[in-house]
Design brief:
Blueprint lengths: L1 E4 L1 H9 L6 H8 L4 E5 H12 L9 H11 L3 E3 L3 H5 L11 H13 L2 E3 L14
Parallel strand pairs: 1-2, 1-4, 2-3
Length: 127
């Protein structure tokens, strides 16, 4: 499985948050899966950190990439073909960060790990 972590899932994973379900935790840890964190999630986290909505032990531009590498999670860049998917996307979800993750999942044929019910309204694979 090619797995794209929603921002909150990545944050729960690196912090050991018990909200992370066992099936999602197992999918992230499964060595047969390719696990990705989008640069969109880094962007979202930096914005929330600057707004004092996301406390972190270090500045996010340092801490989050360190944690991604530490946990052997690949970085997923935002490319033009993924952004082009936006024109086809129904407005079920209005959050621009989540909409970009959905676009990336569509373009790259990824399964999104999320608890966001609005993301589940789209025709994408979700765990």
């Amino acid at each position: 499985m090619k797995l794209l972590l929603d921002t909150h899932i990545f944050l729960w994973f690196i912090s050991g948050n018990p909200k992370l379900s066992t099936p999602v935790l197992n999918a992230i840890r499964d060595p047969n899966n390719e696990v990705y964190l989008s640069v969109v999630s880094i962007w979202e986290s930096i914005v929330k950190y600057q707004l004092n909505k996301l406390p972190l032990p270090q500045s996010p531009e340092i801490y989050l990439p360190q944690q991604r590498v530490r946990h052997q999670i690949a970085s997923l860049s935002l490319d033009e073909d993924s952004v082009a998917q936006l024109i086809k996307l129904p407005l079920f979800h209005r959050d621009p960060f989540d909409r970009m993750l959905i676009c990336q999942a569509l373009h790259h044929r990824l399964t999104i790990a999320t608890v966001d019910q609005k993301i589940r309204a789209y025709s994408i694979s979700v765990i």
